[in-house]
């Protein structure tokens, strides 16, 4: 236990690694020995906005410390277990309840709440660790013949119930063995890897390509989701993920050159062309398929020259969200290139950030007030330009010009550097706050420029309909035609059923206001009930037809994508 530096030693934060085979060891984010607690400023905001006192931080409840007992029955027959063991060997499969629970639970708030209560639901019957694509082919063929559901696990960071197994079956843990480099082509600037390679390994390989790949230059993959440290390359592709530098490098779908899949119908690899005009692209259809059509066994991705010394960080404060968005739209529609990282926070998120970073009440805060940047209205923009030196410098120059025209005040790169330092570690704070029954969850959508403010106001009303709730919103992935809005809501809500109803009301609000169901988290089973309403029956019928062709017995991730 550790306090946060307050004189009264409240709250006490839990800073010990979870017990072996406990529910907490599954629900905890990231490194078992890593922790991050809310700053004094952030905790102050939470207390104020959620109407909490020190008394609300004296007793932890449902920390999930109980052991996962080996009690969940297996419904696969002995013959089926023996058949799969024959393919991969006894050492590469497990029927232990703990393992089955671990590989079928992601990081959605509902997942975490149910694990804290010691609940086990929708878990697989068997975890299999395939060694290579030959194993995957044999497993998928066997399961197709026996009508056994097949699910895929990469890094386990799904927040959409994408790993649930409502009909039991088999989960393939790809990151155990299928995490290797297949090939690197410096001439084409592409890399081919197995889907279970994790983000840090992938980026380290590219950054050190001169030493590790005998390349002439260093490279980057350009893809850095907040889950980067604990997500897999294959996971990025099959969920249509987006990284924090997507405004320059593109979303995961933009980075894919070709893919290789194993399906119940057969195997195929799309050809590594930069572009083709040979009809609708199966390569595009398979992106975002979330394991519903087949198992991704290798993927070829674009890479980019790595030029970290040329990065230029910036931040601006604007008098209103409207003026910040106007500047963001003009930058996105300019013809001078884009920042790699680019973010705009609304007024509530900006105010929270000012307290989190200890800036409220300081000289800079007072100076902002003198410039007309008032609390409750002002909005923060920050980002980073990258690439060839003159390109990065010119992007920054143009950003400054546009921001000043839209009444933005330059804050140097300091706020950006503060954010950058914690960009992968902030999820650890959720564990600390959850220990005291404070929930932090997110929902995100894509939106056009013309509909942005209407959707922002509508969804905020839905979130704020729950009393004593923080709703922070930012845009972080920019396009000429629009951006995304990422809603972070923080509230005290101990009952799981109440939270599910609340979360569904927000999804309803986003969809009804004209936002996409998801921008970069995928669909899973969380968004599945809205898919037909959102896409329409004709588009869903196309997806069902593809599913029927590639997966005649419906074994591949049943229920995912609403299929």
Brief characterization of the structure:
With 563 residues, the protein is an alpha+beta fold. It is 35% helix and 18% strand.
How would you sum up this structure, described in words?
This protein is of the alpha+beta class and 563 residues long. Among the domains are: 78-173, Uridine Diphospho-n-acetylenolpyruvylglucosamine Reductase, domain 2 (2-Layer Sandwich), CATH 3.30.43.10; 181-305, 2-Layer Sandwich (Uridine Diphospho-n-acetylenolpyruvylglucosamine Reductase, domain 3); 308-421, Alpha-Beta Plaits. It is 35% helix and 18% strand. The chain is built from 22 helices and 20 strands. The strands form 5 sheets. A 7-stranded antiparallel sheet has the order 17-14-16-15-19-20-18, with helices on both faces. A hairpin with a 4-residue loop joins strand 7 (181-185) and strand 8 (190-193). It is globular, with a radius of gyration of 24 Å. The two termini are 45 Å apart. The model has no long low-confidence stretch (mean pLDDT 96).
Which structural traits does this protein have?
563 residues, alpha+beta, Uridine Diphospho-n-acetylenolpyruvylglucosamine Reductase, domain 2, Uridine Diphospho-n-acetylenolpyruvylglucosamine Reductase, domain 3, Alpha-Beta Plaits, 7-stranded antiparallel beta sheet, 5-stranded antiparallel beta sheet, 22 helices, 35% helix, 18% strand
């Amino acid at each position: 236990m550790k306090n946060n530096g307050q004189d009264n030693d409240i709250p006490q934060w839990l800073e010990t690694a979870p017990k072996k085979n406990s529910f907490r060891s599954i629900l905890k984010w990231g490194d078992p020995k890593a922790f991050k607690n809310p700053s004094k400023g952030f905790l102050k905001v939470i207390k104020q906005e959620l109407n909490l006192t020190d008394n609300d931080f004296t007793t932890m409840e449902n920390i999930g410390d109980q052991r996962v007992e080996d009690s969940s029955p297996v419904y696969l027959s002995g013959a089926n277990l023996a058949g799969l063991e024959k393919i991969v060997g006894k050492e590469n499969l497990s029927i232990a309840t703990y393992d089955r629970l671990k590989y079928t639970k992601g990081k959605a708030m509902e997942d975490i709440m149910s694990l804290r209560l010691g609940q086990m639901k929708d878990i697989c019957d068997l975890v299999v660790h395939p060694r290579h694509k030959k194993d995957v082919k044999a497993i998928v063929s066997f399961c197709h013949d026996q009508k056994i559901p097949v699910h895929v696990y990469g890094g386990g960071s799904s927040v959409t119930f994408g790993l649930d197994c409502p009909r039991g079956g088999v989960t393939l843990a790809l990151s155990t063995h299928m995490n290797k480099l297949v090939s690197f082509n410096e001439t084409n600037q592409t890399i081919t890897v197995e889907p279970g390679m994790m983000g840090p390994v992938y980026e380290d390989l590219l950054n050190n390509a001169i030493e590790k790949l005998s390349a002439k230059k260093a490279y980057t993959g350009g893809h850095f989701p907040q889950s980067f440290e604990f997500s897999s390359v294959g996971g990025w592709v099959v969920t249509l993920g987006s990284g924090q530098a997507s405004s320059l490098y593109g979303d995961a779908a933009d980075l894919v050159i070709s893919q290789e899949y194993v399906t119940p119908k057969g195997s195929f690899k799309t050809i590594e062309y930069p572009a083709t005009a040979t009809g609708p692209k199966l390569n595009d259809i398979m992106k975002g398929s979330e394991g519903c059509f087949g198992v991704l066994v290798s993927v070829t991705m674009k890479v980019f020259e790595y030029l970290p010394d040329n990065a230029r960080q910036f931040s601006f404060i604007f008098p209103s969200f409207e003026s910040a968005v106007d500047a963001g739209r003009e930058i996105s529609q300019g013809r001078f290139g884009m920042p790699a990282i680019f973010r705009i926070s609304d007024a509530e998120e900006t105010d929270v950030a000012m307290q989190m970073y200890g800036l409220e009440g300081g000289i800079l805060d007072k100076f902002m007030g003198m410039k007309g940047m008032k609390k409750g209205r002002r909005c923060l923009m920050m980002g980073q330009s990258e690439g060839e030196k003159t390109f990065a410098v010119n992007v920054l120059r143009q950003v400054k010009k546009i921001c000043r025209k839209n009444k933005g005040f330059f804050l140097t790169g300091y706020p950006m550097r503060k954010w950058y330092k914690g960009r992968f570690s902030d999820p650890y704070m959720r564990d600390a706050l959850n220990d005291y029954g404070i929930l932090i969850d997110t929902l995100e959508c894509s939106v056009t420029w013309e509909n942005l403010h209407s959707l922002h106001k509508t969804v905020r009303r839905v979130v704020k309909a729950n009393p004593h709730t923080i709703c922070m919103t930012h845009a972080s992935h920019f396009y000429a035609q629009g951006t995304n809005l990422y809603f972070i809501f923080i509230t005290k809500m101990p009952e799981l059923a109440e939270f599910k109803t609340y979360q569904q009301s927000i999804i309803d609000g986003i969809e009804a206001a004209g936002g996409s169901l998801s921008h970069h988290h995928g669909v899973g089973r969380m968004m599945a009930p809205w898919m037909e309403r959102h896409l329409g029956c004709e588009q869903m019928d196309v997806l069902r037809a593809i599913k029927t062709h590639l997966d005649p017995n419906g074994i591949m991730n049943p229920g995912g994508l609403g299929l």
